[in-house]
Design a protein that fits this description.
alpha/beta; 24% strand; globular
């Protein structure tokens, strides 16, 4: 049976650490697929003008295309070249919620993300996507420092 690991990437160095950690885990398993996920943070509760809404769909498609070209496709290509089974996905929405949904939909046993040192005081007070993921995920979550 093939195991699956979802790795959350954000295009930063910390995301690369998460990917490296996931590769190490995958090597220890007999058969493992790595699912590279890039979530573009988006809130349905953001209020926008009519002009902004008109441009929203076009902007979302551009963001997905950019994330796929700059982060997901190169990661999947590198994983495949290293001998791993790998796929990639880009979504818009709540990071914690979507990473968990991807894990459930694809039958992943684990989610690997990196701790981000960005965000400062606001994130310490209101929490981060990583904290929300750890608190609410339906599968084990590994947070790479």
């Amino acid at each position: 049976m093939t195991s699956k690991i979802v790795v959350g990437l954000d295009g930063s160095q910390s995301g690369e650490r998460a990917l490296t950690y996931a590769q190490g885990l995958a090597q220890r398993l007999e058969s493992c697929e790595i699912i590279v996920a890039f979530i573009i943070e988006w809130s349905p509760y953001t209020f926008q003008t009519a002009e902004e809404n008109a441009q929203r769909h076009k902007r979302r498609e551009e963001e997905i295309s950019t994330a796929r070209a700059r982060v997901v496709d190169p990661a999947v290509k590198a994983l495949s070249a290293a001998g791993f089974a790998a796929t990639g996905v880009v979504r818009h929405g709540d990071v914690a919620d979507l990473l968990d949904k991807i894990a459930k939909k694809d039958g992943a046993e684990q989610i690997v993300v990196a701790r981000s040192s960005e965000g400062g005081f606001v994130n310490r007070v209101f929490g981060t996507s990583t904290v929300n993921l750890v608190l609410h995920a339906s599968v084990p979550v590994t947070v790479v420092p």
